[in-house]
Specification:
The complex is a heterodimer of chains A (111) and B (119).
Chain A lengths: L8 E4 L5 E6 L11 E6 L6 E4 L13 E6 L2 E6 L8 E7 L8 E2 L3 E5 L1
Parallel strand pairs in A: 1-9
Antiparallel strand pairs in A: 2-6, 3-4, 3-7, 5-6, 7-8, 7-9
Chain B lengths: L2 E5 L3 E2 L5 E8 L8 E7 L6 E7 L4 E3 L7 E6 L4 E6 L8 E8 L6 E4 L3 E5 L2
The chains are: A mainly beta (111), B mainly beta (119).
């Protein structure tokens, strides 16, 4: 069982927006502004998409945005494109004894 | 650019000790950052295993702490993971990654190495 809870699946049609949630506790998501999001395509390593709750690394399209409210973080993908299909994982810092915890992942399907 | 490359045994038998090495190029591990290991069982999600700070401080997933040791060899620009008493449940793709200090995000990942535990 993963430390952070994500819906197993999400979907949307090209051009639409989809939001993926990531729910933790006050000991992780709610306690730190260190939530990250990763995209993973089949057979590939994860790719950093969002860090520090809402910041995008260079090269990540601005169609990807994220936020946090309380113990729940959210990733929104706007203007869905076929290449956005894949698995998305959230992670959070959870204290000095548990540096990083991950969510169980959400499979995003572009219909 | 910074690149990470995992190496490992591929196939192991239960009760053996897994040894993995991550070779870093394009950046000296003694300069900064955490350096970490993450695994992904087949069809499942990511699990952080351990990280080592450039100063040598180590951090472990509490659920694996009793079986895991992470270390670094700055002369070779490598860091390593040992996992003792492996079982089939340890079958996974193991990734090494660079972890940002203070922000705890993983910005550079290796391609991963598959470890299968089977009798």
């Amino acid at each position: 069982q993963s430390a952070l809870t994500q819906p197993p699946s999400a979907s949307g049609s090209p051009g639409q927006s989809v939001t993926i949630s990531c729910t933790g506790t006050s000991s992780d998501v709610g306690g730190y502004n260190y939530v990250s999001w990763y995209q993973q395509h089949p057979g590939k390593a994860p790719k950093l998409m969002i860090y520090e709750v809402s910041k995008r690394p260079s090269g990540v399209p601005d169609r990807f945005s994220a936020s946090k409210s309380g113990n729940t973080a959210s990733l929104t993908v706007s203007g869905l494109q076929a290449e956005d299909e894949g698995d998305y994982y959230c992670s959070s810092h959870a204290g000095s004894n548990n540096l990083v915890v991950f969510g169980g992942g959400t499979k995003l399907t572009v219909l | 650019q910074v690149q990470l490359q995992e190496s490992g045994p591929g196939l192991m038998k239960p009760s053996e000790t897994l040894s993995l090495i991550c070779t870093v190029s394009g950046y000296s591990i003694s300069t900064g950052y955490y350096w970490g290991w993450i695994r992904q069982p087949p069809g499942k999600g990511l699990e952080w295993i351990a990280s080592i700070y450039h100063s040598g401080s180590t951090y472990y997933n509490p659920s694996l702490k009793s079986r895991v040791t992470i270390s670094a060899d700055t002369s070779k620009n490598q860091f390593s993971l040992k996992l003792t008493s492996v079982t089939a449940a340890d079958t996974a793709v193991f990734y090494c990654a660079r972890v940002s200090v203070y922000n705890y995000y993983m910005d550079v990942w290796g391609k991963g190495t598959t470890v299968t535990v089977s009798s």
